[in-house]
Amino acid sequence: MTYVELFFDLVFVFALTQLSAYLYDNQSGLGALEGVIMVCALWWAWVSTTWVTNWLDPVKLPVRGAVIALAFVALVISVSIAEAFGDRAWAFAIAYVVLQVGRTGFIVWAIARHDRAVSKDFTLVLIWTVAGGALWIVGALLPLPWQLPLWAAALGLELLGTVLGFPVPGRGRVLIGAWDLSGPHIAERTALFVLITLGEGLLVTGFAFAAKESSPETIIALAAAFVAAAATWWIYFDHGERMGSEAIEASDEPGRLARTAYTWVHLAIVGGLVLVSVGDKEALSHPHEHGVAPTLVVLGGPLLFLVGTVLFRWVLDQRWARAQLAGVVALAVLITAALLWVPLDALTLSVAASLVLVGVTIGETVGRLRRGRRSGG
Q: Nearest-CA neighbor of 16 among 280, 269, 315, 277?
């Protein structure tokens, strides 16, 4: 990992805070769909660039310049998030397409002389990326009833390409399983993004707390938010993060494993953490609010995060993480109880979610010690 990659990541700190604010301000079914599209778009933009730096050395001047240029484009995406489904739809779409197409085109050009096979693979990726880009642009030019499905279709096209290997008639398809990847690089970069997402959550919570007068409710909400952040860090970094690089290095198909574990499954982990920050702000700003939206916002983030970590462990280790599964069940029961039986306010739900996450960390640590695995962190 290089410092220019860290510079690229800094832009996404702002992007994640903008995304959290958007989700907080749009707690509705439509807002949730729009949020899902933006989470997927941001993650796809970041993780695809991380895959590119697996082959290209960011220390070299052309690559460094390209990463910095991509960081500027990502900044344009970030400042457009609040109005991505409004007046700045065109800016969000154009910037996203420029980032995706420009990055893919750059690697095709940069690696052509050194590795023709990889250059050919990314040529196929470029064709699919251009097709998806057309949907993004057209969607931005049309009213919202068309924009939402077209942008969803664009993301679906990119996902389908990774599943099928970006096939193009007469030119074959990409054999992702044969790609030679650096396990430590992919794992380290993704773990850093998880850490950035945790930091964004603390940033959002801190600003929300600073904007309000201190009271028992706000102090409890702040403490619960910190406990949840520490617990999610522990669950991810205690030893699961270390397993990723080791599994990729030992795999006969490192590309396929990395795609599943880090491109797909980590979307749930990152999305869950973003939603956790929204829930923390909800508990701080409206501690006594109850209903469907607060319940799903406060408990949905931890639930999605745990589901992601369960899938991550299974992909890497072919073992179901019992502590996380127990946490998923506990949160599902809490959601059901809050919606159907005993209405609970946002603050109570936040404290309950934090306690569940702490329970998962204890179970996770006990299980690791029993299996004799060393800790990370």
A: 277
At 237-288, the pLDDT tens digits run 987 667 777 777 777 777 788 888 888 999 999 999 999 999 999 999 999 9
* CA-closest candidate to residue 151, choices 257, 57, 80, 219: 80
Q: Which of 354, 89, 331, 46 is nearest to 197 (CA)?
A: 46
Say if pTM beats, i.e. exceeds, 0.90.
Answer: yes
Distance CA 365, CA 245 (A): 20
Percent of the chain predicted with pLDDT > 90: 67
Q: Retrieve residue 99's tokens.
A: 């980032």
The tokens for 120 are: 């050919």
Mean pLDDT for the chain overall: 90
| pLDDT score for 178 | 66
SS3 277: helix
Residue linked to tokens 């603050």: 347
| Interatomic CA distance for residues 270 and 268, integer angstroms | 6
DSSP code of residue 266: H
Q: Both tokens of residue 233? A: 């860090």
Q: Where are the alpha helices (DSSP H) in 215-291?
A: 216-237, 240-250, 254-258, 265-285
Q: Does residue 182 contact residue 54 with C-beta atoms inside 8 Å?
A: yes
Task: Quote the CA–CA distance of 189 and 6 in Å, as a whole number.
Answer: 9
Q: Is the dihedral of CA 235, 236, 237, 240 positive or negative?
A: positive
Residues in contact with 53: Cβ distance below 8 Å, sequence separation at least 6, in sequence order = 2, 5, 63, 67, 185, 189
Contact status, residue 22 vs residue 85, Cβ threshold 8 Å: no
Cβ partners under 8 Å of residue 124, min gap 6? 165, 166, 167, 168, 171, 172, 173, 174
- pLDDT per position as a tens digit, 129-154: 999 999 999 999 999 889 999 999 99
Contact of 259 with 161, CB cutoff 8 Å: no
